[in-house]
C-alpha cells in the first residue's frame, strides 16, 4: 500500500463513497468462493435451509409434480343421485301420492389402462421437474463461480491501479527534484504529473468496476450489500475426467427426461380414447303403493366423433420435438466440452508463461530502468515505457487467470451428473 498525497484526497473520497455508502462505517465481510456458494444455497446440505428464490422456485415445482403423482394414483369418486318423479302433476299425479323416489350410487370404471398411464405420465413429469431443479442448482453454481471470478479480477485490477498510482507518485516526485536541480527539462515534470493524473482516474474507474462486480455477485443470494472479495483467484479445478460420455451429463439427462415424459403423455392420451362405462345400482320407492324395487344400470359414452385424436396427434408431435432436442443437447454438449477444455488448457498455458517468464523479466527491466532514472542515466520516457510494458503483462495475467477459472467453472457445470 502507499501513502495518499493531498492531491488524491478528493479522488479517494469518491472511492470511499462508492465502496461503503454514506450510511456504512464498516466494510462488509470478506467472502471466499466457498462462502459465496453456501450463501447462494448451492452448497447447502439441507434443502429446508435454502431460502434463495432462484432455488426455491424449481424445488417448489418439484414438490408440485410429486403431489400430482399422488393425485394420479387416486381412482374416480363414486357418485350418488336422488331422483324424485311424478311430483305435483295433474289428475292421478297430483300432490305426492304417486311420487317415486330413486336413490342410486354410480361408479365410473376406468378402462384401457388409464390409471397406470396417468400415473406413468405424472411420474415422468416429477422426474423431469427434479432434474430441472438439479440443473438450476448447477447453473447457479456456475454463475456464482463466474461472478466471483469477475469480482476477484476486478479486485486484482484495483491493486494494479493502486500500484500504478504509487509508482507514478514516486516518478512525479523524482521528476520534480530533477527539474529543480536542472537535470531534467520542465516538460519531464509535466509529463510525470499527467501520467499521475491518468493513473488516479484509472484507479477510480477500477474501484467502480470492482463495486459493480461485487454487487452483481451479491444479487445471486439477494444480499443487501456488496461483499469484499480478495484479489486472489480461487483454485477452481476442472474434473479429472473431462466427460467422455456425453449422454450422462445433467443437461442431456434433462433432455432425455423430456422425451420420456412426452412418450408417457402419448400413452395417457391414447388411453383416453377408450370410453369409461359407469355402473350404477339403487333402489326405487313407489309412493302410491309403498313398494320398493332395486335398479341396476350401465351407461357408456359413444365415441363417434371425439376419440381424442387431436390430443394424441399433439402428444406425438411433442415427442418428435423432444427427441430432436435430445439429439441437439448431446451434440451441443460434446462441442461445449471440447471448447471449454481448449479454453482451459490455453489459458493455463498463458498463465504459466506470463507468471513464470514474462512478468519476472518485465519486473527486472523496470527495476533497472528506475535505478538508472534515479541516477540520471535514463530519461523519464524510458521508465514510463518499461512500467507500461510491465503493467500490460500484469493485466494480461489477470485476464488469463480469469479465463482459466471461467473455463474450469464451465467444465464443472458440464460434468454435473
Automatic annotation (TrEMBL):
The keyword Kinase does not apply. InterPro entries: MdtP/NodT-like (IPR010131), OMP_efflux (IPR003423). One of its GO terms (molecular function) is efflux transmembrane transporter activity. Residues 187-214, 305-332 form a coiled coil. The keyword Chaperone does not apply. Residues 1-25 form the signal peptide. SUPFAM superfamilies: Outer membrane efflux proteins (OEP). Pfam families: OEP (PF02321). Keywords: Coiled coil, Signal. PANTHER family: BLR4935 PROTEIN (PTHR30203:SF24), OUTER MEMBRANE CATION EFFLUX PROTEIN (PTHR30203). Belongs to the outer membrane factor (OMF) (TC 1.B.17) family. This is Metal transporter.
Amino acid at each position: 500500500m502507499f501513502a495518499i498525497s493531498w492531491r488524491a484526497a478528493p479522488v479517494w473520497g469518491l472511492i470511499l463513497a462508492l465502496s461503503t455508502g454514506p450510511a456504512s462505517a464498516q466494510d462488509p465481510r470478506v467472502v471466499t468462493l466457498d462462502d459465496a456458494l453456501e450463501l447462494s444455497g448451492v452448497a447447502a446440505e439441507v434443502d429446508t435451509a435454502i431460502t434463495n428464490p432462484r432455488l426455491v422456485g424449481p424445488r417448489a415445482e418439484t414438490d408440485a409434480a410429486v403431489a400430482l403423482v399422488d393425485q394420479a394414483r387416486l381412482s374416480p369418486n363414486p357418485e350418488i343421485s336422488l331422483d324424485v318423479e311424478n311430483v305435483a302433476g295433474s289428475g292421478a299425479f297430483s300432490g305426492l301420492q304417486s311420487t317415486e323416489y330413486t336413490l342410486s350410487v354410480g361408479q365410473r370404471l376406468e378402462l384401457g389402462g388409464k390409471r397406470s398411464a396417468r400415473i406413468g405420465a405424472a411420474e415422468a413429469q416429477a422426474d423431469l421437474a427434479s432434474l430441472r431443479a438439479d440443473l438450476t442448482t448447477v447453473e447457479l453454481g456456475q454463475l456464482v463461480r463466474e461472478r466471483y471470478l469477475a469480482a476477484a479480477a476486478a479486485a486484482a485490477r484495483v491493486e494494479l491501479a493502486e500500484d500504478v498510482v504509487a509508482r507514478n507518485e514516486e516518478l512525479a516526485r523524482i521528476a520534480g527534484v530533477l527539474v529543480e536541480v536542472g537535470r531534467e527539462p520542465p516538460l519531464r515534470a509535466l509529463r510525470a504529473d499527467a501520467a499521475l493524473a491518468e493513473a488516479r482516474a484509472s484507479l477510480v474507474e477500477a474501484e467502480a468496476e470492482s463495486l459493480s462486480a461485487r454487487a452483481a455477485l451479491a444479487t445471486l443470494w439477494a444480499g443487501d450489500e456488496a461483499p469484499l472479495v480478495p484479489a486472489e483467484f480461487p483454485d477452481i479445478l476442472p474434473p479429472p475426467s473431462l466427460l467422455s460420455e456425453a449422454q450422462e451429463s445433467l443437461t442431456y439427462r434433462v433432455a432425455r427426461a423430456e422425451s420420456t415424459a412426452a412418450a408417457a403423455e402419448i400413452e395417457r392420451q391414447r388411453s383416453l380414447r377408450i370410453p369409461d362405462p359407469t355402473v350404477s345400482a339403487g333402489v326405487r320407492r313407489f309412493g302410491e303403493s309403498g313398494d320398493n324395487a332395486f335398479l341396476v344400470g350401465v351407461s357408456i359414452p359413444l365415441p363417434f366423433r371425439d376419440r381424442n385424436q387431436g390430443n394424441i396427434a399433439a402428444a406425438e408431435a411433442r415427442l418428435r420435438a423432444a427427441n430432436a432436442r435430445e439429439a441437439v443437447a448431446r451434440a451441443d454438449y460434446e462441442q461445449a466440452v471440447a471448447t471449454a477444455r481448449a479454453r482451459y488448457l490455453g489459458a493455463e498455458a498463458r498463465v504459466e508463461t506470463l507468471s513464470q517468464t514474462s512478468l519476472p523479466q518485465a519486473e527486472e527491466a523496470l527495476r533497472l530502468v528506475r535505478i538508472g532514472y534515479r541516477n540520471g542515466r535514463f530519461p523519464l520516457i524510458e521508465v514510463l515505457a518499461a512500467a507500461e510494458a510491465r503493467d500490460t503483462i500484469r493485466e494480461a495475467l489477470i485476464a488469463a487467470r480469469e479465463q482459466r477459472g471461467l473455463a474450469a467453472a464451465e467444465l464443472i457445470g458440464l460434468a454435473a451428473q
